[in-house]
Amino acid sequence: MDERGESWESFWRGCDLFAFVESREDISDEAGVVGSAWVLDIVRVQDLEHLLDGRPGSRREIPFVATAQVGLARCGIPSRDLDLLVEGTWHGARLGVKEDHLATVFRDLDGAEQWASRLSVMPLHDHQARAVENLVSLDNVPEATEDDLKPLAFSCRSVAVLNVGQGNCNALRDERGWPTVYYDLGAGVLWNSHTRPPDLRFCFSQEPPVFLSHWDFDHWYGAMLPSMPDNSRSGMWFAPRQKVGARTIKFAASLRALRLWPASIPHHDFGPFTVVKCAGTTKNDSGLACFVKTYGGNVLCPGDAEFSSFVVPPGFRAPLAGVVAPHHGSPKSIGTPVPRPAQDAVLAFSFGVNNSYRHPGTSPSLYRAEKWVKQCDTRGGTIELGGRPLGAPCGTSCSLGSSQP
C-alpha cells in the first residue's frame, strides 16, 4: 500500500503500532509547569514483526515511520499510561478517533504535513519489547578507534553558534573563517519547524567532521535539509551510544562513516578542542560535550547536557570566555555549578522564536545572577564566541555570517 497522498492517514489508523519514546519535555512559564509533551516514533507492528528474528541486514529494512507528538495539559487529571512513557522505552500504541489522548502526527521531521488524531498507549510483553529494542539499535555501529581519534591538525579561531531555529549547531572556525568541525548539525523540527530559517545552509567546503552531542532530532536534522551539500553525510561523524528509535536508525544508516564514542574514554584532546563523555542517565545528559580553545579564551558547548553531568577536563578550569546555554536555555537544564565567566564573556542562547517549549523562559535572569551579564541569542543571527564576528567564508551561500556580539 502506498502510504503517500490521500491514503497516508488510513495507512496508520486502526493499526497496532510499536512506539518508541524519543523524549518527554515539560512546558513551563514563570508560574511553573503548565503541561508536558512526548515525542514518539511509531511503526506498524505488521511491518516490523517479520524483522524481529535478528537476521543480518534486518535494520536496513526498517520501514517508513511517522512521528507523533502527544500533549497533555497538567490540570489535575491523572494519566498513568502517559506517565509510563519513559524516554528510551518501547510501548504498544494505536491511532484512531476513539483513542485516549490528543496527538499530532507528523509525516516527516520537517513538519510540513501533519494531522490531528487521538492515540492510546499500552505496555508490550517483555520479550516483544526486547526484540524490538535489539532490532532498532546502534549495536551494529562500530566504536571509534585510536586512528579515528588522532589529533586534528588545525587551529580554532572561534566558535560560531548558528541560527538554526529551535535546535543547535556550533561551528569551530579557523583563521580564514572556514568551519573545520561541527558540534551538532541541528535545525527546528516538527511543531517547531516554523522556527527554522528558510535559507538555512551549512558550509562543508573543508569537509569538516561532525560531533553529535546526542541523538535528539533537533541536533542532527540539519543534515537532512534539501540545501545540504552531497558531502555533508560522507565524512566522519562521532556520536554517543544511546537508545534510539526507528527514524534515527534510518538516518544513522545514511552516514557513510559513523563512529560511536567509546565508553572507555571519558575525554579526548583533539588539540584545539576536547570532547567529554557526559555521565548522566537521560539522553540529554549522557552524550558528548565540547570544550574549545579559541583566540579569545576557552568556550564550552554542552549541547543539552546540564553542567553537572560532565567533568571539566584539564586545562579548562579557568573562567570561560563563552558558553552556549544548555538545552536552548531551558531553566531546568542549568544544573550546578554554573561555570565562572571571564571578563567580557558571552553567553549564547540557541532557540527558535515562539518555540513550543517556551525556551529560554527565566534562564536569562538566572544566568545573570551567576555573573553572565553579556548575553546574545540566535534570533539576532550567528553568534561568535572567542573571537570577533566573521562573515561567511563562501559569500552568501551559507549561514555562517556573524553579526554578534
In short:
The protein is mainly β and 405 residues long. Helices cover 9% and strands 30% of the residues. An eight-stranded mixed sheet has the order 12-11-10-9-8-7-20-21, with no helix packed on it. It has a seven-stranded mixed sheet with strand order 13-14-15-16-17-18-19, with no helix packed on it. Strands 1-2-3-5-6-4 form a six-stranded antiparallel β-barrel.
What's the layout of helices and strands?
Elements: H1 8-12, E1 17-29, E2 32-44, H2 45-48, E3 66-73, H3 80-83, E4 90-95, E5 101-106, E6 114-122, H4 126-135, E7 158-161, E8 170-173, E9 179-183, E10 210-211, E11 236-239, H5 246-253, E12 257-260, E13 267-269, E14 273-277, E15 288-294, E16 297-301, E17 320-324, E18 341-349, H6 363-368, E19 375-377, E20 382-385, E21 402-404
Parallel strand pairs: 9-10, 10-11, 11-12, 16-17, 17-18, 18-19, 20-21
Antiparallel strand pairs: 1-2, 1-4, 2-3, 3-5, 4-6, 5-6, 7-8, 7-20, 8-9, 13-14, 14-15, 15-16
Describe it for me?
By secondary structure, this protein is mainly beta. The chain folds into 2 domains: 5-135; 158-404, 4-Layer Sandwich (Metallo-beta-lactamase, Chain A), CATH 3.60.15. Helices cover 9% and strands 30% of the residues. It has helices spanning 8-12, 45-48, 80-83, 126-135, 246-253, 363-368; strands spanning 17-29, 32-44, 66-73, 90-95, 101-106, 114-122, 158-161, 170-173, 179-183, 210-211, 236-239, 257-260, 267-269, 273-277, 288-294, 297-301, 320-324, 341-349, 375-377, 382-385, 402-404. The strands form 3 sheets. The protein has an 8-stranded mixed beta sheet, with no helix packed on it. The protein has a 7-stranded mixed beta sheet with strand order 13-14-15-16-17-18-19, with no helix packed on it. Helix 6 (363-368) links the parallel strand 18 and strand 19. Residues 1-5 have low confidence and may be disordered.
